[in-house]
């Protein structure tokens, strides 16, 4: 597994933790329509990553710039997690 794939896997892990935290918050006060949509969009940006990492011809650019970046663009002012920024941080500082 190359460094980009490792960083993508770590991004998936941290985003899943964020989804879990959002769900716990929802248990206490209920989820708004916006929060529910954000969770769905997070899952949409991430759900193909495991399959892609099993493929030798994984298109990292698609999963980072298009999927992660697409989430970031939609939620740039409304989310505490920015997926592409997180991926780049992991790649540059943790791998």
Task: Give your account of this protein's structure.
The protein is mainly alpha-helical. It has one domain. It has 5 helices and no strands. The longest helix has 27 residues, at 3-29. The N and C termini lie close together (12 Å).
What secondary-structure arrangement, pairings included, does this model have?
Layout: H1 3-29, H2 33-46, H3 49-54, H4 60-74, H5 83-93
Helix pairs in contact: 1-2, 1-5, 2-4, 4-5
Keywords:
mainly alpha; 0% strand
Distance separating the two termini: 12 Å
User: How does the helix and strand content classify structurally?
Assistant: mainly alpha
Helix content: over 70%
**Silhouette:** elongated
Task: Provide a quick synopsis of the model.
This protein is mostly helical and 95 residues long. Helices cover 77% and strands 0% of the residues.
């Amino acid at each position: 597994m190359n460094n980009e794939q490792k960083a993508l896997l770590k991004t998936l892990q941290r985003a899943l933790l964020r989804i879990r935290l959002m769900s716990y918050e929802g248990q206490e006060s209920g989820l708004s329509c916006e929060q529910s949509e954000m969770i769905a969009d997070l899952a949409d940006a991430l759900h193909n990553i495991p399959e892609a990492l099993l493929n030798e011809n994984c298109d990292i650019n698609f999963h980072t710039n298009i999927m992660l970046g697409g989430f970031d663009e939609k939620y740039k002012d409304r989310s505490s997690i920015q997926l592409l920024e997180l991926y780049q941080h992991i790649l540059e500082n943790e791998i």
